[in-house]
Write a structure and sequence with these properties.
Layout lengths: L15 E5 L2 E5 L3 E6 L4 E6 L13 E4 L5 E6 L1 H4 L6 E6 L5 E6 L7 E6 L5 E7 L5 E9 L2 E6 L11 E6 L5 E7 L6 E8 L5 E6 L12 E11 L4 E10 L8 H4 L7 E9 L4 E6 L13 E2 L3
Antiparallel strand pairs: 1-2, 2-3, 3-4, 5-6, 6-7, 7-8, 9-10, 10-11, 11-12, 13-14, 14-15, 15-16, 17-18, 18-19, 19-20, 19-21
Length: 296
């Protein structure tokens, strides 16, 4: 998820930032700082000394729904700060640590938070490169941090899913699923929240793409969002191929050979089926091209 603040970094080497009310939180590789809107430092949480890092990794911070807590993901294994990645919850007013967890990942390169609209929960996705993604669920209860792996609380190794979006009512999570981390994402999965139970899936082939017949080099699930409580939008990206015969759809839509493209498909959440091509705004009625040029 993209950071929600587009403001000067006040001289910090910001890796992530977020804002709530009159406060801005910025995480760097060495500390988390909370500022007011004028840039005055209110408090700072230092990460301490670091050793030589085995790789590059980025921190991530996010305010809670009500702005009272700052959640911080710290990729300690790859940033040289420790032997396990850590997840913190800090009081947004004082910087006091409400709780922290040593995460059972294999070493994250980065993470992002998804704040739930129920005002209570937050989801964390930690990306571990070819080892997949690890998902966690957290909340503050009676002033203390509670957390667990998600969607299976007893199993931290559910590393084949990536959080894409929350439904408007927060009762469903759209996720992209890997069959194997050595291959591309292969299915769109809809999970119940908070249980994590699988409600239904759409395999990649149901969206109607085929490398051979479409004469495309690649097709990847890329992003998605809920348009409303009845319709979702799934975004693909990839590269066209070489025209071997006929006029493939992408050529008819104005793309050339070996060109980067996007493709958008609308999904009916009530009937649990693919509606068909859409555009980037989510419009799907009338004739819509299957392939569009990669945005500049």
């Amino acid at each position: 998820m993209a950071d929600t603040v587009e403001r000067p970094d006040f001289g910090f080497d910001a890796q992530s930032r977020d804002a709530s009310g009159d406060r801005i939180a910025i995480s760097t590789g060495d500390f988390l700082v909370c500022l007011d809107r004028a840039g005055t430092e209110l408090w700072r949480f230092d990460f301490g000394p670091r050793e030589d890092a085995p790789g590059s990794a980025r921190t991530n911070c996010r305010f809670s729904f009500d702005g009272t807590v700052v959640w911080l993901y710290r990729p300690d294994m790859y940033s040289g700060h420790g032997e396990s990645d850590r997840w913190f919850a800090l009081d947004a007013a004082t910087g006091a640590v409400l709780g922290d967890a040593a995460l059972p990942t294999v070493g994250g390169h980065g993470g992002h938070h998804v704040v739930h609209p129920d005002g209570e929960h937050v989801l964390l996705e930690v990306g571990c490169g070819q080892d997949g993604c690890y998902l966690f669920k957290g909340r503050i209860s009676q002033g203390a941090m509670e957390w667990a792996p998600w969607p299976v609380a007893e199993d931290p190794n559910q590393s084949d899913q990536r959080i894409v979006a929350l439904s408007p009512d927060g009762r469903q999570v759209m996720a992209f699923e890997h069959e194997d981390m050595s291959v591309a994402l292969t299915a769109v999965t809809f999970l119940d929240f908070p249980s994590g139970a699988v409600q239904w899936q759409i395999p990649l082939e149901d969206f109607g793409f085929d490398l051979e017949t479409d004469q495309i080099e690649t097709i990847f699930l890329w992003d998605g969002r809920y348009l409303d409580d009845k319709t979702a939008l799934v975004e693909f990206k990839g590269e066209t191929g070489e025209i071997e015969e006929g006029t493939p759809d992408w050529a008819a839509d104005g793309l050339g050979e070996w060109a980067d493209y996007r493709a958008y498909q609308a999904v009916d959440l009530v009937e649990r089926r693919v509606i068909g091509p859409a555009d980037a705004s989510g419009a799907y009625t009338g004739r819509r091209p299957r392939f569009v040029p990669e945005p500049d």
